[in-house]
Structures are given as C-alpha cells and as structure tokens.
Amino acid sequence: MDLPVTQTAGVTFTAGAPTAGNSNITGTSPVTADGVATSAITITLEDANSNPVSGVTPTFSATGSNNTLGICSATTALGVSTCTLASTKAEVKTLSILTPVAVTGGTVTFQAGALDHITISPPTATIAAGGSQAYTATAFDQYNNTIGDVTGSATFGIAPDGSCTGASCTATVAGGHTVTGTESGKTGAASLMVTPGATVSIDPQPGDDHGGR
User: What is the per-residue burial (b if ≥16 Cβ within 10 Å, else e) of 171-183?
Assistant: First the structure.
C-alpha cells in the first residue's frame, strides 16, 4: 500500500512599494554649525501595510543654506537608512525625503560655534567734545553666525584719549578716536569723531572797564 506524500512549498512575502504616509525622516540636534559636526539623519521606509521596505537607497534634502548632505545607506531589513547632514549656517533646517517618496519630516537645529570675533556698534559715530557715545558688542563664530550680545561682559576702551564707563565712551579732545571692545581675547573696533565743543562768548556788561582806566 502506497502511503500518501505530502509536499510543502515555502512562500516568501515581500513588502510593497514605500508609501509617504508610513515613511518618515528625523535628525539629531543640536549640532555645531562648523561644517564638521554632523546630524545623524534617519529615514524609515514602509509600505501601505507598515511593512519595512529594505534594499532601497533614499535621498533627502534640508532647507537653509551652506549644507553638506551625506549619501544615505540602503535601507536595512527594518526599512531604516542612515545619512548625515553638516552645515556652516546656524539655523533650524527642515528635512524632507526626496526619493523614493516625498515626505517632509523633522527639523535639525544648527547652532553657532566657538567665539571667533566681535563687532562694535555703531561702527562710526560723531560726538561733541565732552559728550558720550553708547556702544554694543556682538560675538560671532568663524562663519559669522551670531553667538549673541556680549555688551555686558566686554571691556571697552578709547584712544588716544578719553575714557569709557561700561559701554559708554567720552573724550574732550577734538579729533579722531578709536573705541575698542574686548571679549575673551577677541577685540572689535569702531571709529569715533570728536568735534570741538560750542564756543562760549561773554558780552561785556555795563560798567566793565575796557578802556584801561
């Protein structure tokens, strides 16, 4: 008597095409805007039934300027691809998947780097002798990203003569002057023109002796 033979066949189900509704992009923050530090970008691709889509190399974009986008890896069995983003512009950047689906996703915040230089404002000014001019000092990194206002901590001076009290400087001698502000070893300069003060004339009064008598 022949016994019945049972045969089985393996069936492999594969994910469908990735869909925008089930795919996303995110990035790590904050990142220093020095062109070297990078945000880790993660792209996840899934099909309409939330199955991960593997073996696909996506592309992405970021808003803003001065960006360097790293090439993305092919998606893993979990549908995950990793990429990098660097920039020299401090700002909030919005991420988007470009291919194989179009998805606008998370944001990455790039912040200013280490202090590189400061500026003094106003850069030029004119006062009368004995008057005063108030200044502000702003710190920047090497890519001219604003670090912030450092007026309160900066040390101000004036040359060739005059004096500064806090961020307000004065001089009594007419002519060109240079005002400096220094913060953490970085110095900015501004020009200050001092004009002669008003001439005071005294009119003779009745009874004054002008005849030498």
Answer: beeeeebebbbbb
pLDDT tens digits along 88-102? 999 999 999 999 999
With 0-12 / 13-18 / 19 or more C-beta atoms within 10 angstroms meaning exposed / middle / buried, residue 169 is buried
Cis peptide before 4 (omega within 30 of 0): no
Q: 21 phi and psi, to 5 degrees?
A: -65, -25
Amino acid identity for residue 90 in this structure: A
CB 177 within 8 A of CB 161: yes
Q: Which residue has the tokens 């780097």?
A: 113
Question: Residue 165 belongs to what H/E stretch?
Answer: strand 163-165
Look at the alpha carbons of 53, 59, 65, 67 in this order and tell me if their dihedral is positive or negative.
positive
Scan for tokens 């961020």, then name that residue: 167
Which phi and psi angles does 22 have, rounded to 5°?
-110, 10
Tell me which residue of 83, 104, 84 sits closest to 95, measured CA to CA: 104
Per-residue model confidence as pLDDT tens digits over 31-87: 999 999 999 999 999 999 999 999 999 999 999 999 999 999 999 999 999 999 999
Question: What is 103-159 written as a DSSP string?
Answer: EEEEEEEEE--S--EEEEESSEEEEETT-EEE-EEEEE-TT--EEEE-TTT-EEEEE
